[in-house]
Amino acid sequence: MEVCYQLPVLPLDRPVPKHVLSRRGAISFSSSSSLFGAPDPRQLSQRRGAISYDSSDQTALYIRMLGDVRVRSQVGFEPERRSSHPYLCIDFRTLHTRLGCGSTSASSAPERRVHRLLSFQRYLHSSRLLRGVPQQIPLHILDEDYTGQARCMLEKVGNWNFDIFLFDRLTNGNSLITLTFHLLNQYGLVELFQLDMVKLWRFLVMVQEDYHSDNPYHNAVHAADVTQAMYCYMREPMLAKSLTSRDILLGLLAAATHDLDHPGVNQPFLIKTDHYLATLYRNTSVLENHHWKSAVGLLRETGLFSHLPAEDSLNMERELGSLILATDISRQNDYLSKFRLNLDQENLCLSNASHRHFILQMALKCADICNPCRPWELSKQWSEKVTKEFFQQGDIEKKHKLEVSPLCDREANTVGNIQIGFMTYVAEPLFAEWARFSDTRLSQTMLGHMGLNKASWSGLQQEQTSVSEEVEPSMAGADTEDAAARKDGNTGGTSSKEIPQGSRES
To answer: Which residues, 6 or more positions from 95, have their beta carbon under 8 angstroms from its beta carbon?
Structure first.
């Protein structure tokens, strides 16, 4: 993992204090946000390292895919120590890159992005038009980049059948930037929190860049999809009338950054390869901790909240972490049991800040795994993408002679059986409780889609089974005919199957 350090200018004869190191890659941060000033382009081109995925649940094998608590090691907590395990040298950002790709294009792409970003910042700084954002100036900074179709889609961004794949194509791969900015603007959060437009734009660009486009599933499009789902949930009547502007800001930022710098492999992979991040976070919510710290790193690097009182900024960072950490599927039963108990006792009071925060955690958990609840055309695409990512990890494990993680063996699993299991053990229990909390048309629509999608996968599974059963009898019939022909003395030539049979008879 590449880590960049930014040091203030100090006399050469004095040692550099440890506290001035501002570590990128979201491992540790100085408490002084002023250290995260305008970055050197050479630093920006060294993107943050990569991590993995995490989870574990006692109810089913499917939850193990995100982190198995049973394989947590007993190593000590040594944040800065890297062991000599050979798999530490794996660059997770290039795990799925084709061998034929040249290094020149890979290295020049981030540099070109940095140049575009810096040019945009210079333009905004020179114009001074958006510094401070007076209320009389409309916030349509991105309109010139929208096509007419993308603008039409944003008018219906609250619809559950919103096609994020189409929107990503219409925005030239910038769905996360465009969608998040639009929602922040729509809620009036830019003016309300006096967010600097340059810093906000830069933050969103860096967030999108820190998602790995090589990941079939955990990429910026997934983050945009989760953000759109989170918006749908926050518009539900019980939340819309209770959430504060601060809640909404944190909810949208948590959705946009909840899988930041995800490498496309899961937490058990990091643990069994003795990755230093697994040691750093004691094999507990490794990915979620890294996503959170990566988000905090970008907030401080861009200074998005630097104009707020220090205490307020730190509190927002902590609450952002609490939301992102809730997406750890290994704690699924804990959150679900607490949610169910609160609903049974009817003691949720959304005028209470802690209760609202808990509901935001549950909303983000739902948004993170809402793919089975989308219409079939969208849900099927997500199912295929996540399974492809699982199987790619399995291929890597086989290549390095590691034990293949559950659900990652393409020879033992199919898209259908993985999805049916996930819906049964993970999605259905969660969304059933969410429907108890928010019994609305959207909740019923989600449950309806999930039922239909589960039935569709079951039907496809049955078709595949029947096809395989038809193939086996036909092969058996061919063997019987060959044996009968030999018995009658009608050899009619030899085949590859007859030779071993003849040898066995002799």
So the answer is: 214, 263, 264, 265, 392, 396
Two structure tokens written together for 97: 């890159």
41, 111 contact by CB (below 8 A): yes
Decide: helix, strand or coil at residue 432: helix
Who contacts 116 (Cβ-Cβ below 8 Å, separation ≥6)?
Answer: none
Residues 326-346 pLDDT 10s: 999 999 999 999 999 999 999
Report the run of H or E that residue 272 belongs to, with start and end: helix 267-272
Element (H, E) at 204: helix 197-210
Shortest CA distance to 210 belongs to which of 112, 295, 86, 118? 295
If you search the block for the tokens 């792409």, which residue do you land on? 109
For every residue of 113-162, DSSP letters joined together read HHHHHHHHHHHHHHH-SSSS--TTS---TTGGG--HHHHHHHHTTT-TT-
* Burial letters 90-124, b for 16+ CB under 10 A, else e: bebbbbbeeeeeeeeeeeeeeeebbeebeeebeeb
Name the residue among 425, 451, 231 with its Cα closest to residue 332.
Answer: 425
**pTM of the predicted structure, to 2 decimals:** 0.70
Closest among 255, 222, 260 to 326, alpha carbons compared? 255
- Buried-state track 452-487, b at ≥16 Cβ within 10 A, e below 16: ebbeebeebbeeeeeeeeeeeeeeeeeeeebeeebe
Q: Give the pLDDT band of residue 25 (cuts 50, 70, 90).
A: very low
Q: Which two tokens stand for residue 486?
A: 């030999």
pLDDT at 434: 98
* 22-23 and 5-6 beta bridge pairing: antiparallel
| Residue 486: pLDDT over 60 | no
Q: For residue 115, indicate whether it is catalytic.
A: no
Q: How many CB atoms lie under 10 A from the CB of residue 80?
A: 10
Q: Which pLDDT value is given to residue 466?
A: 81
**Bridge partner list, 23:** 5
- Amino acid (one-letter) located at 494: T
pLDDT digits (tens, 9 = 90+) for 298-315: 999 999 999 999 999 999
Question: What integer pLDDT is reported at residue 410 of this predicted model?
Answer: 97
The neighbouring-strand residues paired with 5 are 23
Q: How far apart are CA 96 and CA 287, in angstroms?
A: 19
Name the CA dihedral angle for 25, 28, 29, 35, rounded to a multiple of 10 degrees.
-50
pLDDT at 464: 85
Among 200-204, 247-251, 274-278, which stretch is predicted with the lowest mean pLDDT? 274-278
Q: What is the C-alpha separation between 5 and 19, in angstroms, rounded?
A: 12
**Is the model's pLDDT at 21 over the cut of 70?**
no
Catalytic residue among 96, 182, 212, 218: 218
Give the number of C-alpha atoms closer than 13 A to the C-alpha of residue 256, restricted to the C-beta side.
30
